[in-house]
Design goal:
By secondary structure, the protein is of the alpha/beta class. It has 19 helices and 24 strands.
Length: about 650
């Protein structure tokens, strides 16, 4: 018999005889697509990972069955059975040819021939061993309540990806087990907000709360550090009843005279919670108006950026609401510059990397165009004109100095011209600039070189642009709109912007943090119809980050426990522990780009090159191709990745371009 006949005549009846797909609450998923298949040119994808059978009970996937024809030995499916179970994080998996069943228990490595499949109840008990005691019974009760709530699928139009389902499952299991601090680490663009929504959905529908008695619906707080992230989350939670959602804004608090309490799911930013003053003008943070146990569950978006930092003022909010179960969402594996996050939340309950996302076909691959010019650095010569400021004669000004300490307009004009001449001007792009002033200058240069007739072809979106910048960003994110086509920014858009049709990311400022670099790259990885890859235009040698071991490498080893920390003394200003003073500036100044703002300390040097010198600026562009794990590959390998097997019609990128 062939495989289809073997399934119908031998495997299906055996599964049925073991109660699989028959017992109430039991279901069999056939031909279950685990991955989407890596993206290749022309919208074609590599082969998907597809499991023949996935065994489900009480809403939870428990085992995989890999089927082979009865003409083949049962061992032929073992490797695939293990691969699928590893991908789906399942403990039990089977290979069968209809005549024999080979069982593998991934947790212990035990494997061998068995007479039957485990029944649904046996699979459940094997995955979740029963323990004695009231606490264990409560865990089991909540596990079953959570699993009984199906994922919200937007009337069948949307389905969780396998890794999103695992992230939700592991988080819910941690909550059922009474874990108070939980961390999820997933690459930018993989849908962390969608995961947070599904977790909140299950908590809301089961009436879970800190008392774990089902007496009322939970009060959930979504906490971000940028309004755009809070707004995106608020819109993503639209399946909840309208009266359940509350967007906390300072203007509304001032207008009503108190913080809102008439809802179930609240969205705000750290800065809003840290603002607020009493009648005498002294700082009295708004978050203190809520009882410390008001929220049952708190979701901290991009938690590595301050909320869990030992020295961060925002940490005070999390400590104030310490009774709540707190879930941190981050895109960054454990590194030296975010170790506080992992110390606060503990090790993540699930990790999904950029490399996995690209290889699975859920994120878009990329290539890098490295651009070098003769004016990447500069030494003043007397034939150039000093328009403003005081030059240091003999000093070599390097990339980090440009547009902060020294400005040469002709240099920026050349860089913009190179990009506009090489790129498809109809493709959406984000250009990262050194400062807000630099972003304005680059915007103007792009609009001078554009072929479009629309005055808003390129716009700036920075902190200084306020509501009009937010409106430009919303229009840029709208895939139905083509204007604006290019955004210039400095710090504001380095993470969290859900714009799926970004085709080009242009780096015109140094990116010194691996965390920020991965998030910027992540902006381009989101899927969109017809988007086969995106391009990074690198003027600042940021490509060196790919060679860094931290690029999708293994997390750093945990540091050995030292002496216990002494409790911090009360703040000298507010006399409270933790400090509730308004937050100090934690991100680089939007104008000068420095952590310690230097805007008032020195005047920027402005240089005009001698006549004709800008025409002498030469440039060189080299295109390099990178695999998902940050390793350089040849153009042929890149084309093979895009096309599968390189067609006989052409042998190289150059021939393809000619054709």
């Amino acid at each position: 018999m062939n495989e289809a006949e073997t399934r119908a005549e031998l495997i299906d009846p055996k599964l049925k005889a073991c109660g699989l797909g028959v017992v109430e609450g039991s279901k069999i998923l056939r031909e279950y697509n685990i991955t989407a298949g890596k993206i290749q040119t022309g919208g074609v994808r590599a082969k998907k990972l597809t499991a023949d059978y996935v065994l489900v009970y009480k809403g939870i996937k428990l085992a995989v069955v890999e089927a082979k024809s009865d003409d083949l030995g049962v061992g032929e499916g073992v490797a695939q059975a293990k691969q699928y179970a590893e991908k789906l994080k399942l403990e039990t998996t089977y290979s069968t040819n209809g005549k024999e069943i080979y069982s593998i228990y991934m947790k212990t490595g035990a494997e061998g021939l068995v007479a039957n499949y485990l029944t649904p109840e046996e699979l459940w008990d094997k995955t979740f061993p029963k323990e004695k005691g009231a606490a264990a019974e409560l865990v089991e009760a909540w596990r079953e309540k959570f699993s009984a709530i199906p994922f919200e699928d937007k009337s069948g139009t949307w389905q969780l990806r396998y890794y999103q389902e695992i992230a939700v499952r592991n988080t819910i299991e941690a909550i059922a087990n009474g874990k108070e601090r939980i961390l999820l680490t997933l690459a930018t663009g993989t849908g962390k907000t969608a995961i947070a929504f599904q977790i909140a959905w299950k908590l809301f529908q089961t009436r879970w709360n800190l008392k774990r008695d089902g007496s009322r619906r939970p009060r959930i707080l979504f906490l971000a550090d940028r309004n755009i992230l809070a707004d995106q989350a608020y819109n993503s939670f639209s399946a909840f009843p309208e009266d359940a959602l509350v967007r906390i804004k300072p203007s509304e608090i001032k207008k009503k005279g108190n913080v809102p309490t008439n809802g179930s799911i609240f969205f705000t930013i750290f800065q809003t919670f840290m603002s607020g003053k009493d009648k005498e003008g002294k700082p009295v943070p708004y978050f203190g108006e809520y009882p410390s146990d008001y929220f049952d569950f708190i979701i901290i978006d991009e938690c590595h950026r301050g909320g869990a930092n030992d020295e961060g003022n925002w940490r005070g909010i999390l400590e104030y609401f310490s009774p709540a179960v707190q879930l941190g969402l981050t895109a960054t594996p454990k590194r030296k510059d975010n170790v506080d996050t992992y110390k606060y939340f503990g090790e993540p309950v699930y990790v999904y990397s950029l490399k996995e996302g690209i290889n699975d076909g859920f994120l878009t691959p990329f290539k890098v165009k490295r651009i070098k010019t003769k004016l990447d650095d500069y030494i003043y010569t007397s034939d150039d004109q000093i328009i403003e400021g005081e030059i240091e004669e003999g000093r070599l000004y390097n990339e980090p100095d440009f547009n902060k300490i020294i400005e040469i307009k002709a240099r920026e004009a050349k860089r913009v011209q190179i990009y506009m001449d090489d790129a498809n001007q109809k493709e959406k792009a984000i250009i990262f600039c050194a400062t807000q002033d630099h972003a304005a200058a680059v915007r103007d240069l792009v609009n001078q070189y554009k072929t479009s007739t629309d005055p808003n072809y390129c716009v700036r979106v920075t902190a200084n642009d306020g509501e009009i910048g937010e409106q430009f960003l919303r229009e840029f994110q709208d895939n139905e709109k083509t204007i604006p086509t290019i955004l210039t920014t400095s710090q504001k858009l380095s993470t969290g912007v859900d714009a799926r049709n970004i085709r080009n990311i242009v780096l015109m400022r140094p990116v010194n943090s691996m965390i920020e670099f991965k998030q910027i790259v992540g902006l381009g990885t989101r899927l969109f119809d017809g988007k086969e890859f995106f391009t990074i235009y690198d003027y600042v040698d940021a490509f060196h980050h790919f060679a860094d071991p931290e690029w999708d490498g293994e997390p750093i080893d945990p540091e050995p426990e030292g002496e216990p920390k002494q409790p911090k003394p009360p703040c000298k200003v507010c006399n409270q522990t933790p400090c509730v003073c308004p937050p100090v500036q934690k991100e680089p100044c939007e104008i000068c780009g420095e952590l310690n703002c230097s805007c008032n300390r020195r005047q920027k040097i402005k240089i005009k090159l001698r006549d004709g010198k800008e025409r002498e600026i030469q440039s060189m562009m080299s295109t390099s191709f990178w695999s998902a794990d940050g390793k350089p590959i040849s153009s042929e390998e890149f084309l093979n990745n895009l096309f599968g097997v390189l067609p006989n019609l052409f042998k190289s990128e150059e021939e393809l371009r000619t054709l």
